[in-house]
Amino acid sequence: MSSMLSFIIRRLLILPLLLIAVTILIFSMLSMLTPYERVSLYVKDIPKRQGAMEGLIKKYGLDDPVPVQYWRWMAGTKNPDTGEIEGGVLRGNLGWSKTGKGTVWEVIGRRLPATAELALWTAIPMIGIGIYLGVVSAVNHNKLLDQILRVFSIVGWSIPVFVFGLIVLLFFYAKLGWFPPGRLSDWASQVVQSSQFIRYTNMNSIDALLNGRLDIFRDAVRHLVLPVITLAYLDWAYLLRVTRSSMLDTLNQDYMTTARAKGLSENKVIRRHALPNALIPVVTVGALMLIGLLNGVVITETIFNIPGMGSFLAESAISLDVISVLGITMFNCLILLVGNLIVDILYGVIDPRIRLR
Amino acid sequence: MTEILSVQGLETQFRTREGIVHAVNGVSFNLDEGETLGIVGESGCGKSVSVMSMLRLIPSPPGQVVAGKALYQGKDLLKMTDDEIRHVRGAQISMVFQDPMTFFNPVLTIGKQVSEPLEIHNGMNKKMAYERAAKVLEMVGIPKAKERLEDYPHQFSGGMRQRVMIAMALITNPQLLIADEPTTALDVTIQAQIVELVQRLREELGMAIIWITHDLGIIAGLAKRVAVMYGGCIVEEAEVKELYANPMHPYTRGLLGSLPRMDESDHRRLVSIDGMPPILMEKPKSCPFLSRCTYAVDHCKTENPALKSLSPNHKVACWVDPNTGREF
């Protein structure tokens, strides 16, 4: 296991380097916007206030060379009045988000629970059903059930999320009125924001349970149904395909014959001998999907009006809020890198052949 | 000696896109308690498929046993319920496979895999089964067996893995061990060790063995009787010494002729058998060896010869006596 430990340490050491590389990449890409484009967000009534933009550009040095600006963003700037250093990504300060009306960290803190809640509720059916159906499909290889599941998954895999999301919204909300968009009904948000309601996690459904408010829980879940269905269907369609092909591959392995020749029942052959092997690639794919969900799902959150990380990114990008986009991207990269590290460690845990390398 | 296995007229087919492949076409043989039978033949002649069909381990579809009986201690394995045959597999009839790498589950420990048959068939708890597994592993010559129970297959060498596989097969003290080319994937020196190991274990445990191989050299020191297979049929069956001294089927002659011999002083060229083994897309109406046979007569083209006894311990499926070149 010591090799595992050194592997983790090595990966942790690389992590900051990767993050710095990411900062350079994103910063240079966003520097392709002109200083005017980058400053326009902060000036009201541009036609009436001639010179305001030029003033801001000069004040913040937005026409300086890109490396100088980059360094200022990374290390922060000295306030000429107080002499204190302000901002600076290296000091953990991602800056002020005009879109979110708060520091980027504050806005992330406000927006993340909605995304995390969505990810959580999506992950459970996605991983459970996706893997289960993948196994069922593989075990019934080329039989009717397999064919039906394959059609079902290829449809899910091919429909764009904005089409599927809009269709379910149209049908279940506009036509039937069952599942509304947003996070909560008005009456419920009033309760949630009142002082009697303790916000443990800021995830409505979970806080409702912790506060013992089943009516709020029901309302929160009602709002989650459509985005969860949208995300879960598209993702489990993919997971089903991965599980199915991995399982089919495993079922063709020689050691399946060994297991049968020992006198194991077919059920045990699959559960004990096939599944642990077949799930190795599935764990990777599943975990990466989960990371993707945590990073915010721009389109789904926008369609269903969920104030999460994805819609935050969309709003920031539309209003050319460079600081917010930089901050969100950095945060997403951090989640991705840490998530990847966890996947790699998990991989070593479930596959003994990798563990000793 | 009592007979423990009697296979009669076994026929197995595979349904493929190109048509039905007749892999086994009426194979019959018997086996006594504690006896060792060698089944010899080149790749694709149906030796593995025959024994796998017997234990119903052929993947179905596409495989299907279409005719025949496989009487194990008087009961037909092919007519048993799934539950009944499961209690035979691994408990009374065990198998050792060719490639000790791919036939082990890579993510389960050796201890788990070796002790598993005890757990299913004898209802043993994990601790007892592991203790017994360590003993059996020691018996097959794994050093520090107890410590190695927690290791994974990839941590063993090829020869050691094959020893583990043998331990796994013998842990339940089966009546019959089927070894499907167990030495093919191993170095020659390791092959000899494995053969010696099996000989020793046979003396200690007294199980019957079916040893499938394409190596006539290995079988000579191991089996009492040998069946030679070609094109899904047994073409010759005889006691080992008789077969080597007096091969009667042209194919057996070809096989023996292609072996190098230590006792020959002149360095003769090794003879190969011209042509390719048949693709069994239809049930052979002629002799399957016809196209490669140097002794063929007209009769061979019209009828596939059945296995007939020449003497009590020698059977052959051929129309022609190769010693005279005339029909029997």
H/E topology pattern of chain A? HHHHEEEEHHHHHHHHHHHH
Could you tell me the mean pLDDT of chain B? 86
Helix content of chain A: over 70%
Strand arrangement across the biggest beta sheet of chain B: 6-7-8-3-9-10-12-11
Number of helices of chain B: 11
Enumerate the strands of the largest sheet of chain A in spatial order, edge to edge or round the barrel: 1-2
Radius of gyration of chain A: 25 Å
CATH superfamily of the largest domain in chain A: MetI-like
The succession of helices and strands of chain B, N to C, reads EEEHEEHEHHHHEHEHEEHHHEEEE
Cα distance, first to last residue of chain A?
A: 10 Å
* CATH superfamily membership of the domain at 3-92 and 214-262 and 270-327 in chain B: P-loop containing nucleotide triphosphate hydrolases
User: What is the tally of beta strands of chain B?
Assistant: 14
Q: End-to-end span of chain B in angstroms?
A: 32 Å
Largest binding interface between chains: A-B, 24 and 29 residues
Instruction: State the assembly state of the protein chains.
Output: heterodimer
And the CATH topology of the largest domain in chain A? MetI-like fold
